[in-house]
Amino acid sequence: MSFEILFLVIYFVAMAGIGVWAMKRGKQDAEGFLLGGRSLGPGVTALRLQSSSMSGYMFIGAGSMGYTQGYFSMWYALGDLGGGILNLSVLGRRMRKLSQILGSITSIEYLEHRYPSKWIRLIAAPVALFCMFFYVLAQFIAGGRGLEMVSGVSFPVALAIAIGVIVLYTFLGGYLAVAYTDFVQAIIMVVGMVWILVATLMAVGGFTKGNEAVGEINPNLLTMWGADLGYQGQWGVILGALLVFSIGYMGWPHVVVSHMAMKKPSVARTAGVYSLIFNLLFIPGPYLVGMFALILLPNLANPETAIFEVADAVLPTFAVGIVMAAIMAAIMSTADALLLQAGTIASQDIYARFINRKMNDAQMVWVSRITVLALAIIGYAIAAFDPPAVAAVVIFSTTVLGSAFVPSYICAVWWKKANAVGAISSMIAGTLVSVLWQVSGAPDATGIDPMVTGILASTAAMIIGSLASQKSHPVPEHIGRALDETAKIGPIPKKMLIDQDALLASQAEMAGRHE
Amino acid sequence: MSELVLRTLVDGQDAQRILAAKAPGLAVTSAKLRHHPFAGFVFEVPQLAGRIAQAHALVDYYSGKAFVTDPWQVQDAQAGQRMDLVADPKWNTIDFDTARERAKALLSTAVLRRARLAWRGGIRETSSVAKVWKPNWVIEAKLEGKSYRIMVDGLNGGYFFIGS
Fold first, then answer.
1. What pLDDT shows up at residue A412?
2. Closest residue of chain B to A357, computed from CA coordinates
3. CB contact burial B31-70 (16+ within 10 A = b; e otherwise)
4. Transmembrane stretches, by residue range (chain A) (predicted)?
5. Domain span including residue B127
6. Cβ under 8 Å to B: A residues 303-342
7. Structural domain tally of chain B?
8. ipTM above 0.95 for this complex
9. What was the pLDDT predicted at A453?
C-alpha cells in the first residue's frame, strides 16, 4: 500500500472512530443536533458553506480545462464568481422573501406553491433528479480518477471503491458529522488547494515566469479565446461559459430555499460576503494549476489528472496524502449532499406526493436509501468502461438545470402574469432544447452554447405559455398578494442590507402592513 | 395547553441598540411590540446510536413556514398584559392540521440531513400548542432624512425592513 493510500485510510478511519465515540459518549441534545453551528462566526460559516458546494469539478474538471484551454477557462471562473453575487443581489433577496411568504422548505415545493399545479412537481422533480444524477456521476468519476492515480489500480476498480466510499459516507456520515465537520473539511480543502498553488508557482518560477513559459508552449493559451483561438468571436460559446455557473447555478435545488432553523441570522448573512471573498481566492486556483501543469508535465495522457500529477510532482510525499484527503473530502461532501437531496426529491416530491400520501419518516428513509443505491449502480454502469469528462458532465447538468428552472424562478418574483402553464412550458422547453442541442452536436455546428439556446427557449415558452392561458389559468389571488408584498423590498440603507434576516419576511409583511 | 406567549428576550432598548449598532445615526421614533401567531409542536426525535431527544418546531399560521427552534421560554402568567396581536390577513393563512404536516415534514428532512441514511425514522409528536404568540418589534426610525419601518425579532434580534 502506498503512503498516500495509507494516509487516506488512517485519516478517514480516525475521523469515523472519533465520530462514533463522540456520538455514544456525548451529551448533545436534539436542538444541538438540528441547530448545530449557531456559535460559529461568519468566517467559519462561510468555509462550511463553501466546502459543501465545491465539488470534484474544481480539482478534476477545472484543472483539465486550464491544461487544455489556458485562460479561456477563466470565463467559467468568472461566471462562478458571478453566481454568488447574483444570490446576494436584489434577485436573491426577492426570491428568498417570496419563499418565506409562501412557506416553502424545498425549491420544488416553492415552485408548486408559486405556480399551484400538481404538474409542476411532477415535471420539476424528475428533471431535477436527472440533472443531479449527472452531477453525482461527475463526483463518482472524479473520485475514481483520484484513487486510480494514487493507487495504480485500474479505473473500474478505483471507481467501484470510490462509489462504495461515497455511498458508505452517505449512510454513516451522521456519525462522522460530530468530529468530521464541514469546517474541518473546508480547512483541509483550502490548505490543500493553496499548498498546490503555491508549490506550483514556486516550481514554475512565479506567476509571470509561468505565464511566459506557457506562452512559449502555445501563446494562444494566454488569450481568452482557447488553445487554437477557436473561440475568438464565438460569443455564443463565451456567453454560455459565463452563464453556466452564474445563471445556471441558480437552478440548483439548494440555492433558492435552504433556511430551516429560527436562530440568530446575522452570521449567515455576513457569511455570504465572506463566501464571496473565499471564492475570489479559491476559484481561479485550480484553473491556474492546470495551466501551469503544461510546463511541469507537458505530456499528460489524461488532462483530468493534471492537479493530482502536479501535486505528486511538486509536493513532498506526506503532503500528497493531505492533498488527496482534501480532494476526496470535496468529492465526498458534494456527492453526499447531492445524494441526500436526490433521496429527498424521490421520497417527498414523488413518492409522498403521488404514490403514498401517508408516507411516514421511516418509509421516507427507505425510499431515499433505494434511490441512492440505484443512482450508485446506474452511475457505475455508465462510468466504469467509458467515463465521460468530469467538466463536460458538470457543465451539462448545470446547463440543463439552469435552462429548466431559472426562468421559472425569476418570473416567479418579477412577473405577475407568470402562471402554471407558462412555468410547465418553460421547464419542458428548457430541458428538451438544452439536452437536444447538446446531443445533436449543434454547439459545434453553430458556435452557440446550449445554455444560451436553453434559456432563450424556456424564457420564450414562459412568456407565450403564460400570456396564452391568462383566462383559463389565472394567477390565484393569494399569489398576487404575495407578489405585491414581495415587491416592497427597498430601499434599505446599504450598511443594513447584508445582515437583514429573510426569515422575518412574512412576519414583517403581516405585522407591518396589515394594521 | 392551547395557547402560550413566548417571553420577549430582546426588549425595546435592545432592539434600538441593535439597529443603532448597524447604522449609527439612526433615530428611533417609536417602538411597538406585536405578537405573531404560530402553531407549536414538540417531537421526540430518535437520533443515531439509540439516542432520543426532544425537538421543538413552530409553524407560522400566516405563511405556513415551519422552523426548528430552541426550547420555548414562556412568559410568566402574571406578566401577561394586553397584547397587540397581528390580525389575520386572510389571504395566506393555514390551519392547524396543515401546520402539523409542515412541522413533521420539516423535522424529518432536517434530521435526515444531519443523521444521513443510517437514521431509521420514528419521529413522534409528544405535545402541541394551538397558538404560540411570538413577540416582534415594529420600529419607526429615521436615517439621513428618510423614514423607515423595521421589524426586530423579539427573540433573537434579527431585523427586516418593512418599508420606507
1. 92
2. B101
3. bebbbbbbbbbbbebbbbeebebebbbbbbbbbbbbbbbe
4. 6-23, 73-91, 119-141, 153-176, 183-204, 233-252, 273-297, 317-343, 364-383, 389-413, 420-439, 451-468
5. 3-163
6. 336, 340
7. 1
8. no
9. 96
